[in-house]
Amino acid sequence: MQRLAKQLELTPFRETAFAPGHNACPGCGSTTALRMVLNAVGNRAVFFVPASCASLYCAPSDTSATDVPVIHTIFAGAFAEAEGMAHALRIQGREEKVVVWAGDGCCYDIALGGLSGAAARGANILVICNDNEGYQNTGGHESTATPPDAATRTGRRTERSHGIRRRKDLVEIIAAHHVPYVATACAAFPEDLEAKVRKAVALEGFRMILLLTPCVTWGYDSRFSVKLARLAVETGYFPLYEVEWGSHYRVTQEPAMVPLERFTRLQRRFSGSDVDLLREEIAAKWGDLRFRCSREQAPPPSPNAGGLGSSCLGITRRQTGAS
What's the CATH number of domain 24-320, 3.40.50.360, 3.40.50.970, 3.10.180.10, 1.10.150.290? Predict the structure, then answer.
């Protein structure tokens, strides 16, 4: 094999913390993102994984594909357990990072109280919310991360609810705790994802990254996982930005704002849905985000964060149209 690689002039494969052999679904968007996160965090880390799809592809001892310790746990206790682990490691003088890889069902719904508590206490943990917009491990049931009027196993939100129809804005909820760092990311923009993970790892205190991960239960061809993640950003459906200390906002990837239909028509969950509800949500989110980015803010109190850099106005030259 080495002789053949030399003849073909192949460069050595990059070592990865996520080995082949996992048992996720073909076309799973989460495993692509997890590999990037694991490589960016490094092997001096302990991962907590509450019940989710990740229970299948990185927690079981007979199929685990990671080279870091993984503690499989329950929804409600995940963030408190991770906080306790971080405290114990600090007492022992150890430098391992503590990371929670949790789904949107855990972060948005079942363990939101625990997540908020950990943020309020300044727990020294990094939370990666693996957001596939529903309880996909059970076949595609609705969570409060599910987009308006998308079809799920429990129907459409608009068919039975007269209350809030938009997705819960988890980033803003956590940013309101004035934690050091909150960001959004997706695997279709690997440099952005890696920079944000490395930046979060370098910080102390509570950090969270909301990671959009397409799931085949959305009803798409498995080969389109990364394409859908990219279209989610390019249509404005999923903004890529970061928030430092609850007030310093910066958009890290300007979307091309391509037609929303290029994203929705590839997924059966939007078949027959009212896409205008989604457009209204996107317009409202971007209006709020532009306003927050445009406010002049004092520099964040962590100048040594590194990674993506910072701007007091939170606007890149590309956003302002400067050459």
Answer: 3.40.50.970
